[in-house]
Design goal:
This protein is of the alpha+beta class. The chain has 3 domains: 139 residues, START domain (Alpha-D-Glucose-1,6-Bisphosphate, Chain A, domain 4, 2-Layer Sandwich); 127 residues, 2-Layer Sandwich (Alpha-D-Glucose-1,6-Bisphosphate, Chain A, domain 4); 259 residues, Alpha/Beta hydrolase fold, catalytic domain (Rossmann fold, 3-Layer(aba) Sandwich), CATH 3.40.50. It is 31% helix and 29% strand. It has 17 helices and 21 strands. The strands form 3 sheets. The chain has an 8-stranded mixed beta sheet with strand order 14-15-17-16-18-19-20-21, with helices on both faces. It has a 7-stranded antiparallel beta sheet with strand order 1-7-6-5-4-3-2. The protein has a 6-stranded antiparallel beta sheet with strand order 8-13-12-11-10-9. Strand 12 and strand 13 form a beta hairpin. Helix 5 crosses helix 6 and helix 9 packs across helix 10. It is elongated.
């Protein structure tokens, strides 16, 4: 009979509370040691999602107290079951910290076996968390997980696994091994985890796990690969095919062996997906929300020093209700690491276009904010075939359209001016190298000293229907945005000649920074503009 449970775990980690927080409270961090692909909106009341295969479990953040306490919970649709998690982080004087987990919820009819499997599973994953923090901290991972049910007797299944890995039997923890799974590259590393249910190897660029669930006899692999050039879905298909070869008699094994391992596939879940694309020397981070909606996607381009979460976290849920939304993080911003190259609008434009082509996007609507609006406009000028509709928030086409003296002041900004800001906090939370924050500010100041401009003819030639948005107390002067609106065909008597292909919105009581947080206004006007019939 189903009944409630409470499970408590504790582990000492060689990391600071802030480093542990990043590992348990960010999607990239969780993806580097736990199951599936994860999302976590960084606020109390925010949304959580974990996707394994085509299944997504969603929940809500019930406590957000960085870097000390995190809690979240998901409930079944009928309200009869739930799972709740509370994480407590306690720093120590020696630079380590203690992480405590309390999980509660409802387990099924085989309560004892399920509770035991849950407890043993957490032992494995918390050990993996410790290994990630000790050896791969801050590096994005490609999570690879695939399962094969009905493998039969556990001892026989382990014997098949050892043979399939080229091992004579279960090696001892600490032993150096070379795994030779047929059809896959060899893995050389040290055995870092051994239990009756699981076996793990740590290589120079990955944490590999093989386990057999005693509750239902499912054989699974659950790897986290840190080399930076791994396509997670391709890797999952390859390991799935390997499982099919190791267990050829099972129905699932036969299906796995028939699955081609060279054709990449993409998740199509409402919860979204995230990844890194090899673009012009970058590993460029992106998120896709509601790919299943189909149609022309909306691409979101953030501003200087910002991230997808800071600029668009509040509006993505509304925009993605009925359309595919793709968020992008530019060079040195958010999850995307810096490379030895200046920051320029031209580079960001080329990177964004290359990313869209990598994702197979032939045409998209684009919403750019602040410097992201400059990228969006440059794409519309250089690659008009890629742009369906254009939303330019806080945009200018000439630097004189900004308030006088603004750029001189911006070039003097230093880390001390942004201490404690959402930009600094989110960078520290998600950036692969948080210590590069001062360098990012320096490179942005260099970029601001040489911003591109466009001619009136170039603006007039933009074919995409365009929505211009500024705040009434923005860094862009109202006169300039009206001038730009006229160049795009606006400023006419709509009752006599019809509405123009472009629109203008000036939000009252709104500054440059607060514009993207006017989520209700933005969601309604952007959504209506993208859906409207425009001749």
């Amino acid at each position: 009979m189903p009944r409630e449970f409470e499970l408590r775990k504790e582990v000492t980690l060689d990391a600071t509370p802030e480093q542990v927080w990043e590992a348990i409270a960010t999607g990239q961090g969780i993806d580097a040691w736990f199951m599936g692909r994860n999302q976590l909106e960084p606020r109390e009341g925010g949304r959580t999602a974990m996707t394994i295969g085509e299944q997504t479990e969603e929940g809500v953040v019930t406590a957000w107290e960085p870097p000390g306490r995190l809690a979240y919970r998901d409930d079944s649709p009928d309200g009869t079951a739930f799972m709740a998690f509370e994480w407590l982080i306690e720093g120590r004087d020696d630079g380590t910290c203690v992480l405590r987990l309390v999980q509660s919820g409802v387990l099924g009819d085989d309560w004892d076996a399920e509770f035991d499997a849950l407890s043993r599973g957490w032992d494995m994953y918390l050990h993996k968390l410790a290994q990630y923090l000790a050896h791969f901290r801050g590096r994005p991972a490609a999570p690879v997980m695939t399962m094969l049910p009905g493998a039969g007797d556990a001892d026989q299944a382990w014997s098949r696994l050892w043979a399939g890995l080229g091992l004579a039997g279960r090696p001892a923890e600490g032993k150096t091994v070379r795994l030779t799974p047929k059809g896959l590259a060899p893995v050389e590393g040290v055995v870092d985890y051994v239990s009756p249910e699981a076996f793990g190897v740590r290589s120079g660029d990955g944490l590999y796990r093989f386990f057999i669930r005693g509750v239902d006899g499912t054989v699974a692999v659950g790897h986290h690969l840190f080399s930076g050039d791994v396509d997670a879905k391709e890797a999952e298909l390859a390991w799935q095919a390997w499982l099919g070869r190791v267990f050829p008699s099972s129905e699932a094994g036969q299906a796995a062996r028939r699955q081609p391992v060279t054709e990449p596939t993409t998740q199509t879940t409402q919860a979204g997906e995230r990844g890194y694309a090899p673009v012009n020397g970058l590993q460029m981070y992106y998120e896709v929300h509601n790919r299943a909606a189909g149609g022309r996607p909306l691409v979101l381009l953030h501003g200087n020093l910002s991230t997808i979460g800071v600029d668009f976290g509040g509006i993505i849920p509304s925009l993605a209700e009925d359309r595919q939304v793709i968020g992008v993080e530019q060079q040195a911003h958010g999850h995307t690491a810096d490379i030895d190259r200046p920051l320029t609008i031209e580079h960001w434009t080329d990177d964004t276009v290359a990313l869209l082509r990598h994702l197979g996007i032939e045409r998209a609507d684009i919403l750019g904010y602040s410097s992201g609006s400059a990228v969006a406009m440059q794409i519309a000028v250089d690659h008009p075939e890629l742009v369906g509709r254009l939303v330019l928030a806080s945009a200018s086409y000439r630097n004189e359209g900004l308030h006088p003296g603004l750029m001189d002041n911006l070039e003097q900004v230093g880390p001390e001016h942004l201490a404690g800001s959402p930009f600094e906090q989110d960078y520290a939370r998600v950036a692969p190298n948080p210590g590069d924050w001062p360098r990012l500010i320096e490179k942005i100041n260099q970029m601001n000293a040489d911003l591109p401009e466009w001619t009136a003819d170039q603006v007039r030639a933009i074919a995409a229907p365009t929505l211009l948005i500024i705040g009434d107390s923005d860094i862009v002067q109202p006169e300039h945005i009206v001038e730009m609106f006229r160049l795009l065909g606006g400023g006419v008597i709509g009752d006599l000649v019809g509405l123009p292909r472009s629109r203008l919105a000036i939000l009252p009581g709104t500054t440059h920074v607060t514009l993207v947080h006017r989520t209700d206004w933005l969601a309604s006007m952007v959504g209506e503009f993208l859906d409207a019939e425009i001749s």
